[in-house]
Design brief:
Elements: H1 12-26, H2 34-51, E1 73-81, E2 86-93
Pfam families: rve_3
Protein name: Integrase catalytic domain-containing protein
GO molecular function: nucleic acid binding
C-alpha cells in the first residue's frame, strides 16, 4: 500500500527521519551521484542510530558503540562526521 504524497501522519516515523536527513545533511551537501548519496546516507544513518543524542534518553545515544564515561571527566573530545558537517562529542575520562 502506497503512502499518499505530502501526508505526514500516514507514516510519521519515516517522514520525521526524511525531514531530519534533509535538514541536517542533503540540503547542506552537493551530492555528485547515486554512489555518493548512498555513502552519505549510510554514514548518517550510523550516526543517527548509534551516536546522536536523544532528549528522551537524557541526551544519551540509543545504541552507543562503547560504554559512556562516568561524570568525573575533565575534557570533551570532538569527532567530525561527514567531513565536519556534523560533530560528535564525547567525554574523556580522567
Amino acid at each position: 500500500m502506497k503512502i499518499p504524497p505530502r501526508c505526514p501522519r500516514a507514516n510519521a516515523y519515516a517522514e520525521r527521519f526524511v525531514g531530519t536527513v534533509r535538514r541536517e545533511v542533503t540540503d547542506r551537501l552537493l551530492i555528485i551521484n547515486e554512489h555518493h548519496l548512498r555513502s552519505v546516507l549510510d554514514r548518517y544513518a550510523t550516526h543517527y542510530n548509534h551516536r546522536r543524542p536523544h532528549q528522551a534518553l537524557q541526551l544519551s545515544p540509543p545504541r552507543p558503540d562503547w560504554p559512556i564515561a562516568e561524570a568525573d571527566y575533565i575534557s570533551i573530545r570532538r569527532r567530525p562526521v561527514l567531513g565536519g558537517l556534523i560533530n560528535e562529542y564525547e567525554p574523556v575520562a580522567a
